[in-house]
């Protein structure tokens, strides 16, 4: 039976609007609209949120696992579903499940498991590798970084390729034919783990690479004689960039500078991993981030809501804009107009959180999760 809910007594954020003294109407799996309290239709159960913030469910385009579940180490339907449940509890209602550089067999297995799982929260896979630049590999094993060839891509995408929605590549090492193959498959291409010059990066952006992976991390530096990938990102009129706002991967002052230059083209990711003691990536929790056993920074311990909080409290970004960086902007990048906003007819993925950034309730497709 379809459940009708009216969330009241909260501050509602949707796209560029902020609503007070209004009600958000949820009808089954969809948003019916935002109306005056006096206009709530009959048959709606009113839920008073006590002055808290109401926003679209958060969207993370780069996350590897959660809790004790690192997907690439497990590669099971059960693991994927556990990650979905963990993230829903955090207010993340849509994400791209990410795998770092690995063997092609692991990638193929992940694609098959993803399709078998038929997930509802995970929208697709993001392959971060293996077509990277070893000079900027970070925590990625050098021996697994391979030269991209169309024949390799055809083999990789042969059976379950529709599961892959995003791929991070080093564009200076990827041929035009490979880029064309991936674009024809509908894969969103992002430049990362790249040592590209400004000229190489700009050329890639102009030929279909539409995003940059974790700005500042694992890429050619912003140098006064060659501004590299960061400079090309700032100078290009349309390319978007993700950024990890934990104060560890990127200094908060660098986030502030990036935001001033990129404005609506900058969006949030967590790059979050999970504790793992098996397989290629043995992630060890080091306080508020993860490292490999040799101390190499390997991932964040962020939640997306914490990244939003950091934007507000440490970078000075207004709350409504910080929320757009975790909802509207990633949704628009992947071409999803039905999520990332609370407009009539959109999916009823909703997060309610307190003034201290504590998750209070989460609705997924209209069903209350917590």
Automatic annotation (TrEMBL):
The keyword Cell division does not apply. Keywords: Carbohydrate metabolism, Hydrolase, Metal-binding. SUPFAM superfamilies: Composite domain of metallo-dependent hydrolases, Metallo-dependent hydrolases. Transmembrane segments: none annotated. It comes from the Bacteria. InterPro entries: Amidohydro-rel, GlcNAc_6-P_deAcase, Metal-dep_hydrolase_composite, Metal_Hydrolase. Gene3D superfamilies: Metal-dependent hydrolases, Urease, subunit C, domain 1. Residues 54-367 form the Amidohydrolase-related domain. Belongs to the metallo-dependent hydrolases superfamily. NagA family. This is N-acetylglucosamine-6-phosphate deacetylase. The gene is nagA.
